[in-house]
Write a structure and sequence with these properties.
Radius of gyration: 28 Å
Number of strands: 20
Number of helices: 30
Distance between the termini: 41 Å
Strand order of the largest sheet: 13-12-11-14-15-16-17-18
CATH superfamily of the largest domain: 2-enoyl-CoA Hydratase, Chain A, domain 1
Strand content: 5-15%
Number of domains: 3
Structural class: alpha/beta
CATH class of the largest domain: Alpha Beta
């Protein structure tokens, strides 16, 4: 049996290799931790060892974090604290070895991997290495010593940034802040051995990264005196509350543990860390965020999506609008050459400028690597280069006639095995395929705007779409770093159908006299990043009207709001034109639009309450049931992934189906029946909801 943790001697330096059998990455699961414990004990008792180097045999990186399944199994605070103490104890064995230990890191070093590296004497990494402590994204904080060792190594400000944001630190920044001692200049193992021997021969020779000028002054002012620390922690707390709005307890608790731990011996700090992480590990927020994490990983593991299509090495994009530019930027950022075609040369130039701005980000100019990526895109008004594209993505105007015309024109220029994907948000794939010579090669690839930020992609299939086409689009979405959800060809697919129902109902509430600004605030308090009317502005009122019309024509039980249609006819389009429900003036905060208020004709205005919020949410729950009933998606996991990653449903609530299960389908059905009184068919509980006690009910769950 292959050893998970093994070592061999290189002279008087032990070279420790981490290699979890039958896994692509090393994970700090229980058996792996036990192997680390045994190796530390053996090394500590072995004679003649003057130092050790720890490195990974995995191509992807060092250690990819803790065991998510173990986190999911925690049910009590005591259990959670006990797990943390055990992990701390094992890593502490490595920190107390009677010789220097060098962590030689390549690739990813995530969560518990970073905490293991912190327990070593020194850290050396390759230029491609990246470190992170992303535990706050799971509703917890680093519990294997990270909150205590990191501030002592890199300073409070840097540690708070890493722990509270969960962001990734790459090699140059890791060196600058002192997280690593060196970046390997030649061979990782050779450089690590040299560093280990240097530390063994002369511990005082250890070279720490140096901080100069304004940075050392800032550290002295903020971190080396009580007043400065108070300011630093107060600013950090304000930033956390602004970002989380109090819905996520882990960052605030991490802040408290770091604040209290920095002035006490590290042993007591570790006990504090273990004690405080226990309740978080057992909390509903943690369980929901672990569920959301599993949703993001599910497409990579789902056997039904595991089949391979063609490897997309070159692509083409039709349409140089906002979506075409965004998709093109995403493709070249992943190293995929792309031809961007539009009939308007001005649109192409504008799109190429947008791609450059997206690559540049906040920098003043493109670096060398970004310049090379920019060379991967070619703009053209002709169908030049399409014969080499493995995938053509259509992102033209959302009108069926236009899309069919573009397909007829393009298909003869594609090689026979190439795939054509439409980026439509609501139009029928089956209808589009009527214009195709090879309908089996046509699928849907629905990106969400902005493309570079929104993680979800809906993969749309019709009865004619081949398995090869579906497999290609799924694997392509994964290659782009997106989360694919497979949906059937149905009006609005999944996300826009549920969102369309939600936004339309919000507008109907306003027509009944609800204060729309207060309703926005009410839904934000629930955890949405923005209320329904700010979201309508972001989407575009004209687009919202188109989606509503598509849904209304397909589902007779949906009465459409006249408010959005009137606003659209009045020329009020939303944020893109500077005015929707709110005014968007450069340099100032958005404020209510008086012109929109003129479109609302109600005799009285009342503040919304919890019952109005339930009306919106329960209607979406009912529509989710209909989508599952109709086979738009195959499982509640698909609905939750779509709503969290594509519609902004609060992650800490786990997704709309998981939230509905926690609320109780019985309670939701009763309220829907009450709302359905007066021939409001849309509220009548669908058969799927009527026949189940929970979305996540499985046959084995029943007694």
């Amino acid at each position: 049996m292959q050893s998970m943790v093994s070592y061999k001697m290189n002279g008087d330096i032990a070279v420790v290799t981490l290699d979890l059998p039958d896994e692509k990455v090393n994970i700090l699961r229980e058996d792996f931790l036990r192997a680390l414990e045994r190796s530390a004990l053996r090394l500590g008792s072995e004679k003649g060892v003057k130092g050790a180097v720890v490195l990974s045999a995995k191509a992807a990186g060092f250690i990819a974090g803790a065991d998510i399944d173990a986190i999911a199994r925690v049910r009590t605070p005591e259990h959670g604290s006990r797990l943390a103490r055990e992990g701390q104890r094992i890593l502490d064995l490595w920190s107390r070895l009677p010789f220097p230990v060098v962590a030689a890191v390549h690739g990813h070093c995530i969560g518990g991997g970073t905490e293991f590296a912190l327990s070593c004497t020194a850290r050396l990494c390759t230029v491609d290495a990246h470190f992170s402590l992303p535990e706050v994204k799971l509703g917890i904080f680093p519990g294997f010593g990270g909150t205590q060792r990191l501030p002592r190594l890199v300073g409070l400000e840097n540690a708070l940034d890493m722990v509270l944001s969960g962001r990734t630190i790459r090699a140059p920044e890791a060196l600058r802040i002192g997280l690593v001692d060196e970046v390997a200049s030649t061979d990782l193992l050779s450089d690590a051995l040299a560093l280990a021997r240097q530390l063994a021969d002369s511990p005082a020779s250890r070279q720490r990264p140096r901080v100069f000028g304004a940075k050392i002054v800032r550290r002295l002012v903020l971190e080396k005196n009580p007043v400065g620390r108070s300011v630093l922690f107060r600013q950090a707390r304000a930033g956390v509350l602004k970002k989380t709005k109090g819905h996520y307890p882990a960052p605030l608790k991490a802040l408290e543990v770091i604040r209290r731990g920095i002035d006490i011996p590290i042993e007591k700090g570790l006990e504090l860390e273990a004690q405080e992480i226990g309740p978080l590990l057992a909390s509903g927020v943690c369980k929901n965020l672990v569920h959301v994490f599993s949703l993001s990983q599910r497409p990579k593991k789902d056997p039904s999506l595991a089949s391979k299509g063609i490897d997309v090495r070159r692509a083409a994009v039709l349409g140089a609008g906002v979506m075409g530019a965004g998709i093109s930027h995403l493709l070249i950022s992943k190293g995929i050459p792309v031809v961007l075609r539009d009939i308007d040369q001005g649109a192409i130039e504008q799109a190429l400028s947008q791609v450059r701005r997206l690559l540049q980000g906040r920098s003043k100019k493109l670096d060398e690597a970004e310049e090379r990526r920019l060379e991967l895109i070619t703009g053209t008004t002709r169908l030049w280069g399409f014969e080499e594209a493995d995938l053509v993505i259509e992102a033209v105007a959302e009108r069926m006639g236009v899309k069919q015309s573009v397909l007829r024109e393009t298909e003869p220029h594609m090689y026979p095995g190439a795939i054509f994907a439409t980026n439509t948000s609501a139009l029928s794939l089956s209808e589009l395929q009527k214009a195709a010579e090879r309908p089996e090669m046509i699928g849907g690839l629905h990106f969400f705007n902005p493309v570079h930020r929104m993680p979800l992609v809906e993969i749309v299939r019709s009865g004619q779409t081949s398995e090869r086409t579906v497999a290609t689009l799924v694997s392509f979405a994964l290659k782009l770093g997106k989360i694919p959800v497979l949906v059937a060809d149905s009006p609005g697919f999944l996300v826009n159908r549920l969102l369309g129902v939600y936004l339309n109902e919000a507008a109907l509430l306003v027509e009944e006299g609800i204060d729309w600004q207060a309703l926005d605030r009410l839904m934000e308090e629930f955890g949405f990043p923005m209320g329904p009317f700010r979201l309508i502005d972001e989407v575009g009122i004209d687009i919202a009207v188109e989606v509503a019309a598509t849904l209304g024509a397909s589902f007779s039980y949906l009465p459409l709001s006249t408010l959005l249609e009137k606003a659209n006819l009045a020329g009020i389009k939303g944020k893109k034109d500077g005015a929707g429900f709110y005014l968007y003036e450069k340099g100032s905060r958005s404020r209510p639009n008086p012109q929109m208020q003129e479109q609302i004709h109600t005799s009285s205005v009342r503040r919304p309450g919890v019952r109005d919020r339930k009306r919106l949410l329960y209607l979406m729950v009912n529509e989710a049931g209909r989508c599952l009933e109709e086979g738009v998606v195959s499982a509640p996991e698909d609905v939750d992934a779509g709503m969290v990653f594509g519609a902004g449903f609060p992650p800490f609530r786990g997704g709309i189906c998981r939230w509905a299960d926690r609320t109780g389908l019985g309670e939701i059905r009763e309220k829907l029946i009450e709302l359905a009184w007066g021939a409001r068919e849309r509220f009548t509980p669908c058969p799927y909801l009527s026949q189940r006690e929970s979305f996540y009910e499985r046959p084995s769950d029943r007694s």
